[in-house]
Amino acid sequence: MTLFWIICAALLLVALPFVIWPLWRKHAANNDVLRDAANLEILRDQADELQADLNNSLLTQASFEQGRRELQARLIEEVKTTAVPQAVVRNPARLLAIVLALLIPLGSVLLYLQIGSLKAMQPQQIQGEGAEGFGVLRSEAALQELEAKLVKLPENPDGWLMLARSYTELQRYADAVRAYGELVKLVPNESQLWTNYADAMAMNNNQSLLGEPTKFISKALQLDPENTTALALAGSSDMERGDYVSAITHWQKLVTLLPPDYPQIQMIHDGINQAREYLSQQKGGKEMLAKLPAANAPEKVAANPAVAITGRVTLSPALLAKASPTDVVFILARAAEGPKMPLAVIRKQVKDLPMEFTLDDSMAMQPQLKLSGFDKVVVLARVSKSGTPMAQTGDLEGSAGVVKPGTKGLNITIDSTVK
């Protein structure tokens, strides 16, 4: 900031002389002096004309003498007037120069304070945008500055949220818990805040959701029963307490709220299966499993051999070094024109290649989106480094192009890298 003001002052010192110096050098015009000088010049011209007329015999000697006397009388009168001391004339341009020399710097500072930013030249805080658009501070100086502001103005929910998110990002969970505690006092009816509060407290408590975090999760679900993060944490809390029925219920509801291609959905299904397995091992667990609703299970679609697509997938020898035997391989069909969600998908591993495949309606991720519902589809195979069906940079891919449902004997070679 000091450097900024020094630069501004230097620029003013350079600019001011171009404005002030021309005004300072300018002299005020004395109109009376100019008038007398003009009159004397006129008298001299008239005297010259009289002499010329006499020489040209246009005037008699008597007329010349009379005219000269009149001119001499007028000359004496002008000399008397000119000899009277003239009042010192002040130069208003110099006064204007002095005023501008004071007003330009002062006005520049006042204008900058009005429309500029005093923080513009300060070191910028390293920030990233959070899920709700709030910044994340990463420097200790910025965090301390925000803490000081919140001490003076504690009723600032945006500030507490930024502080809480920043501490969470920095894994300073005790500080994050303190910030969320202040935040929920100001905004008590926001489900996601209670969810984040529970998560931060659990991380600060050796990743345990027991106790206060469980209460906060319940509060979050009371405010928003479809809060997906709260449902995920609720299932984890249930598992930690050994309440497998509740865990299954929460996670099954979560599955219904997530899209079928959600990256972690398979992990949620695995959690549900694990909870079912643990429940079946408890006394009376099988009876409880029988009572649980099965509405979350995907609706099965009957296979239609007429529209089934068959073929073979191989991995190009040139790409063998880029793939691990345990990398996930997806073989899928999606609409050539329409939704990008797979109409049928098979999940295998690189070690299973080469392999024969069949894609049909029974593999639909959603009952309303199946092979038989489209005239043209794109069939491809992908080695997924992330383990998700969505293409990522570095994945390996091969395609059979656009085909009709029911096409048989496709040959797909995985021979390119996703850029």
TrEMBL record:
Provide the protein's localization. Answer: Cell envelope
Segments traversing the membrane: 95-113
Q: Which GO terms describe its biological process?
A: cytochrome complex assembly
The reply to whether Ubl conjugation figures as a keyword in the UniProt entry is: no
Q: What are the record's GO terms for cellular component?
A: cell envelope; plasma membrane
- The segment(s) forming the Cytochrome c-type biogenesis protein H TPR domain are 147-264
- Protein name (database record): Cytochrome c-type biogenesis protein CcmI
Query: What organism does the record attribute this protein to?
Result: Gallionella capsiferriformans (strain ES-2) (Gallionella ferruginea capsiferriformans (strain ES-2))
